Amino acid sequence: MLKTNIQSIISLRKLSSSQNASIKGSYDVIIAGGGMVGCTLACAMGKKALLSNLKVLLLEGSLSQRFELKQEYSNRVVALNQNTKSLMKSLQVWEHVEKMRLQPVRYMQVWDACSDALISFSSSDILDDDVAYIVENDVLLHAIDKELKTSDVKNVEIVYGAKIAGYELPQINSQNSESIVKMSNGDTYKCQLLIGADGANSAVRKAMGVQYLSWNYDQMGVVATLHLAEETENTTAWQRFLPTGPVAFLPLDSKRSSLVWSTTHAHAKELLKLPDEQFVDALNDAMWKQYPRRGAVDACTMWVGGLLRRAGLPDGAERQLPPSVRAIAPASRAAFPFAFGHSTKYIAPGVVLVGDAAHRVHPLAGQGVNLGFGDVKDLTDLLADALYTGLDISHHSWLQSYESLRQRHNVPTQLAIDALYRLYSLDIAPLVLVRSLGLQLTNAFHPIKIGLYDDGTPAAQA
Predict the structure, then answer these.
(1) FAD-binding domain: from which residue to which, for each copy (predicted)?
(2) What is the DSSP-derived secondary structure letter of residue 278?
(3) Of 40, 66, 147, 162, whose Cβ has the fewest other Cβ atoms within 10 Å?
(4) Cα torsion angle, 375, 381, 408, 57, sign
(5) Pair 329, 136: CB distance under 8 Å
(6) In degrees, to the nearest 5, what angle opens at C-alpha 43 toward C-alphas 75 and 181?
C-alpha cells in the first residue's frame, strides 16, 4: 500500500513537472483580444504607475500590419464621448489621433420622420465642450498601438497571430488560482488574472460557463463614406428615425460624412445592389422624403409646442436642414448585422470580461465602444486600488466591485437603447404620439436633455 502511494506521488510530481516544463510563459495578467478595448487596457496597465510592475501578455489574433493613413476615409468609424476622450488623453493616445485625423461634433439633430418632433444638442449645452468626436476605427487602433509600443510601456508583451485553442480556468475553492491558456501551436501560458476582451463571441466567456442573454435585431447597418453636395464646416451629426430604422450622417471633414443606415435585412441587401447613383438618390430620399403623417399626432404636437412657446421654452420648430449627398466613395458600401448581448456575470475566479465580451448594444446611440472604454477605466482604477491596499491581483472583492459598478452603468444604458429601438421600430399612431411628445418635451427642458446626454443615450451612431 505504501509503495503504491509513493508511486502515485512520484507520478503526480512527474506530471506536474511535465506541465510546468510545457509552460512557455507565466504572467500576472493575460488579455485575450487585441482590439480597441483590449489594446487600451494593455496600454493602461503599462501607463498606470500602480500597475506598471505587473507582467502583462496581450494575445492578438490578427497579424501585425503596417498602418498607412489613406486619403479616403474608412467606412467604419466610432463616435467617442468626453469620458473616452479623457481616458485617451490620460494615456497620451489622443495626441496621436489629433495628429492623424478626427472630426468634432459640435451640434447634433435627431428627428422623427413620422412627425415634427426633434431633439438637438450643441456644444454650448455641455459647457462649451464638443458633443462627440468621429474617429475611424483603424486610426484609433493605430494611435493606441503606437502608444502601447513606446518606451513608457515596459511591462507588456504582445503576441500577434495568436490562435487560442482553449482555456483551463481555476475553480471555486480550488487551490489552483491560475488560468491556463492553450495555443493552437502547442504553446501554453498561465496567469493570475485572465481578461476576456475577445468580442461578442468571446471564448473566455464561454469557458466561464456564464449565462449570456442575446438576441438578433431584424436590422442590418449599411455603412459608406459620403461626398456631400456642398462644402461646409460640417460639424453636425444628423440622425433621422425612419419607419424602417434610423439613418445617420456623421461628419468626417468639410466635404465628407460617414453613413450608418439601420434598416431591414431585405432592404439592406437591396441597397447594396443598387448602382451608386440610385443609392445616392435613395439616401437623399431617406433624409428628405415626407412620410405620411397622422393628423391627430400633428395636432397634439402643435398644441404642446404652443404651450412650450408661451412658457418661453424651445418648441422644436427651429431646425437645421440636413445636407444633400452628391456621391459615395468607391467600394465603401458594406453591411453588418445588429444584435443585443449581455453576460449575466462579468467575473469568475481569476477571470474578468470587458467590452463586447461582456455586453453588446444596438449602435443607434453609438455607445458600444464607449461602454467598453468605461470598463477599461473602472477595471484599472479598481485593480490599482486593490494592489495599493495589499490585495491579490485576483482577489474576489475588487472583481466583485468591478462587476457591480459596470453592470449598474451598462445594463440601464443597454435597456434604454433597446427600448428606443423598439419604440421607433413600430409605425403605430399611439406610439408615434408618445415618442413625439417625449422627444418634444425632453428637448424643451434643458436639465433633462443634458441628463440624457450624460447617460450617452442620444449620441450619434457608430
Answers:
(1) 28-266, 344-408
(2) H
(3) 66
(4) positive
(5) no
(6) 95
pLDDT tens string 236-260: 999 999 988 899 999 999 999 999 9
∠ at Cα 35 (49, 235), nearest 5°?
A: 95
**DSSP string covering 12-44:** HHHHHHHHHHHEEEEEEEEEE--SHHHHHHHHH
First to last CA, the chain: 68
Q: How far apart are the C-alpha atoms of 23 and 7, rounded to whole Å? A: 25
Cell match 483580444: residue?
A: 33
In 3-state terms the chain splits into helix, strand, coil percentages (rounded to 5) of 40, 25, 30
Helices and strands (H and E) in the chain: how many:
13, 20
Angle between helices 368-388 and 36-47 (to 10 degrees): 30
CA contacts within 13 A on the Cβ side of 235: 15
Q: Count Cβ neighbours within 10 Å for each residue of 4-33 and write b for 16 or more, e otherwise.
A: eeeeeeeeeeeeeeeeeeeeeeebbbbbbb
Q: What is the mean pLDDT of residues 18-26?
A: 67
Q: Which residue has the higher pLDDT, 319 or 238?
A: 238
CB neighbour list of residue 331: distance below 8 Å, 6 or more residues apart = none
